[in-house]
Predict the structure.
Amino acid sequence: MTDAFTLPIQVVESGPFSAWLVEDHSVPVVSVSWSWPGGASTDAPGREGTAAMAAAMLTEGAGDLRSLAFADALRDSAIGLSFSAGRDTFEGSFRCLADALPETLRLARLAMTAPRMDADALERVRARAIAGARTQLETPRGQAGRAFWASAFPDHPAGRPATGTAESLAAIPPEALRASLDAQLRGGGLLIGVAGAIRPARLAALMADLFGALPAGAPATPPPLPRFTAFGRQVVTVPGPQSQIVFGQPGIAPQDPDWEVAQVVLRVLGGGGFSSRLMEAVRVQRGLTYGIGVGLDTLFGGGVVTGGFATENGRVAEALEVTRSVWSDLAQSGPTDAELEEAVAYLTGSLPLQFTDSRRIAGTLLAMRRNDRPIGWLAGRNDRLRAITRTDAVRFAGSLLKPDSLAVTVAGQPVGL
């Protein structure tokens, strides 16, 4: 069976820079996404959130444009420009009308080469970041997630909150932000994905214009993901009628040859909404939670299977017992023929939905490059999925899913744990 959906990817090079391009002139819009290794992995202990704050400051004024003037310039040309720091990457992106490319390049280049770091803008960004950290980390969900990752990777950047805590954000001095940007914004280490109304020759000139003034060299390579610490079960006491549960175990790296088999097995386990085994057993049959899901989190070149749900304090123990039982059953027997067919049908049929606009296409191209995918990886994806047999799925479920290694963090006041 051959799919009608294709994504024609071109490789465009300009000196030291290389981009993957999906050219489409049906709408006069251009989206560019780029990234470097680094991000929050470069934050010093006690100053978590430095890279995230530094990224936020890049659009708070540059050159002779203070924050408001910079924002007005973006708005006047309908430009979307943003920077962000992930756990192991630092990213930039813009989307604009094709006619606005010269102004977009000017402002994006100015942001990366001459950020102002005005004191009033910095304190506004700091206050916003602290408020966001409290919202994310001080809820039961946030506390469960923070404790889970800290215990799973206690001596690695993966175990620290990428956006920082209220305490760490308050302690970051302006010079630390500048040092972070100096180490991060380099001419080397760049990965670039582009989609929209731009021809290869124009893109080659764009890369030289946008990145050519950055200092030579590449950011430091983040440390690889270490072995997952199977810490068992822990409780973080949070007053309230419900508990939030986060659970997980070692996963697989994006380059693993069983990547597609993993997508099928995890969809059956907890990624398929009401069609997943966990949703059926924990919510539909027993009413223990409103929703439960599982996914594969990729970071630092590795992977972690994670999931979560919330339930009443008095039902936590039962919900965890059911979850572990479902985990064990799938590990022992694998998906049924019907489950395999449904998962493959969903994963193949939903592929075109990832490419509905230029921004999503550029982002997907960038993700493919970060995961070291070959340029033809997408073209063969559906055939690889359809080639998966139940024997393959049973074998992989048995090797991946380890109920005895399932680590659990409960934030709340669970009864009986």
